[in-house]
Amino acid sequence: MFAAIDLGSNSFRLHIGEYVNGSICVIKSAREPNRLAAGLNKKNVLSAEAFQKGLDALRRLREILDAYPLSDVKVVATNTLRIATNASEFLQDAEKVIGYPIEVISGEEEARLIYLGVANVLARPEERRLVIDIGGGSTELIYGKGQEIVRAESFSVGTVRQSLAFFHDGIIDEASFEAAILSARSQFEDAVDYYRSCGWTEVYGSSGTIRATAEILAMNGIGDGRMTLENLELLKKKLIEAGHINKAGLDGVKTERASSILGGLTILIVLTKDFGIDVIKPIEAGLRMGIMWDIYLQETQKDRREEAIRDMLRRYGVDEQRAIRVADYALAIYKQLGPEADKFLKQLYWSALLHEIGIFVSPTNYHKHGAYLIENADMAGFTAREQKQMSKLVLGQKGNLRKLNGVLTNSDALKAVVALRLAVMLQHAKVNFKADKLKVRVKNRIEMTVPKEWLDTYPTLLYWLEKECEWWEDVGITMTVRSS
Q1: How many CA atoms lie within 13 A of 2 on its CB side?
Q2: Residue 256's pLDDT is what?
């Protein structure tokens, strides 16, 4: 049993699910509306009131989590906490309240998780589809075939900003609607030609706003009740005639969702018209379902991060044989050091595989270029926190250790740094590495025993070992090397 929490721009939402006979069954859902994006000022600073509402919502979700025997919980934050300049302050308090790490995911990663949820619910391997998710702060578009994502994009337009900017206090008129539509159109215009040419056969809407809009169309008998451009225009006309969202007299318009419906409608009209969409089918799947599938697949079958690493190796023309040798050396040394937990095992291996990607930019200071690429690249399945930790390992693969900024205070992280540095050194010195020939341990100091035959056979190894002792001494850690 596992849980997914989405800290969205319009609401915080929770799914608790369980994998049963090929599908994930949702056992419990909860929604805490708080319109977090409305708490941003013009400088993208979250207000104290928004802080408090967010923390209160998390306390209520924590009470639900505590009632279930969960094997894994993943909490992600989306657009508002991507752009808020004081997001780190909120997240620090929020993690204490919810009791789990919170990962701020990129718009592209959000799109991939949305598609993962939709694709696994539909289970139609040959279907070419466009998936649309309209959130409070951003809109995601994903084109794919079956389980495969062809293109995933995030656009900085969402329901909360649209509503606040064009429908103040729920007041509606034709001029405001046209201005809102024009604003939304400007966000998508560069993408129109691509998506019109994709050849998708079905279009699905995965967000709560789209499902709510579909319900309003059906419940009120607007046109034939489907989500088409013609019916969306009829809904727009009814809202303009009413003059205010609360006077529209429409069934299914809940007070807390009213502003989202307005903002979302402007985006839906643009997408159906400009992209040539005949009908959008609402679907009960999306980000939270995608997160739960991601948890399940990482634990049991296919870890999408493995494919992201392979993509990086191909993209930057890495010598895979060298990369695999260094990764194998690093893992063997790390296991010998006896880490307290498995936390860094995969990160160390992946970092070792990517340790030379910076050469694509320049052979000079390639470790610095590699660290930058890893931290800032769009790597499917990875959290920003994981990428930052890996970038630190790649940065620390050689040279001075002062640049690691506190990484060495964690015992397992220190051992990972030792393992990677020694693996890279052995590769450079062209040592015919045998794990049982090298003895390394890390306690209060680093102690290393090297076969004398290595020192005799590989002339640069002694030089590098002496330099290594100096670099560790520079950060107050003694390293001793003996031969046997």
Answers
A1: 21
A2: 64
